[in-house]
Design brief:
By secondary structure, the protein is α/β, with parallel strands linked by helices. The chain is built from eight helices and eleven strands. Strands 2-1-3-4-5 form a five-stranded parallel β-sheet, with helices on both faces. The chain has a four-stranded antiparallel β-sheet with strand order 6-7-8-9, covered by helices on one side. Helix 3 links the parallel strand 3 (about 45-50) and strand 4.
Length: about 230
């Protein structure tokens, strides 16, 4: 596995690199967001780790630029910003996971391993899910509705897949949170509501037939109601 790390704390960057090397993981460190993109474009990486508050362009902007070029590479945010609003902003820009400083190195390793395994599973998964005029290509992370491609962030795509694989059965907010994040992060009821609303705007807003539904007091489900 080869990781590209964006971290402007030279000491922490060096410690993270040494830790990964002990785990037989190659890690290149970059301290500036603009330089990070040049490095990212010059070499193949399996996963990226981004701090947010860095020189040049910040980690959120870097995340957006990566997603313009690569929809599938796992992105882990590693930052001191721990508020739920910061986490939601990171996931909106395309991050897959979020770890707040200070952190334990073994947890960092566990999260990286989880993201990498998920990437390998996605490569092997050739599943295509169809619900009414909605088509979800799991392997390609591609969604179309009525033949029109719909651009989703990785978290939005995962949420849609979770709902689709429930085959019309409702999922509680806790069910969704457990599946959406491999590790527990601080959430509240509004967190899942925000994500569902993001998804509804892209999947349902421009179509007469709504596919994402709320079962009051229970949760959400995805199906064509006739």
């Amino acid at each position: 596995m080869r990781i590209l790390l964006l971290e402007d704390d030279f000491t922490l960057s060096s410690e993270v690199k040494k830790f990964f090397e002990l785990k037989s993981i190659e890690c290149d460190g970059v301290y500036d967001g603009s330089l990070f993109m040049k490095q990212f474009n010059s070499k193949e990486y399996d996963l990226v780790v981004l701090d947010i508050n860095v020189p040049g362009i910040n980690g959120l902007q870097v995340c957006e630029k990566i997603r313009e070029k690569n929809k599938k590479i796992p992105i882990l945010m590693l930052t001191a910003f721990g508020d739920i609003e910061d986490k939601l902003e990171a996931f909106k820009t395309g991050a897959d996971d979020y770890l707040v400083k200070p952190f334990h190195f073994e947890e960092l390793f566990a999260r990286v391993n989880s993201l990498f395994r998920r990437k390998e599973n996605d490569i092997r998964d050739l599943e295509i899910i169809r619900i009414a005029d909605l088509e979800i290509s799991v392997n390609e992370a591609k969604v179309t509705r009525a033949g029109t491609e719909i651009k989703l962030t990785p978290k939005e795509f995962k949420l849609l897949s979770i709902l689709a694989k429930a085959k019309g059965n409702f999922l509680s907010k806790q069910d969704i949170a457990t599946k959406l994040w491999d590790y527990h992060i601080e959430t509240n009821q509004n967190t899942i509501e925000v994500y569902v609303n993001f998804l509804r705007k892209k999947i349902d807003k421009d179509f007469d037939t709504k596919l994402i539904h709320t079962k009051v007091g229970y949760g959400y489900y995805l199906k064509e109601e006739v």
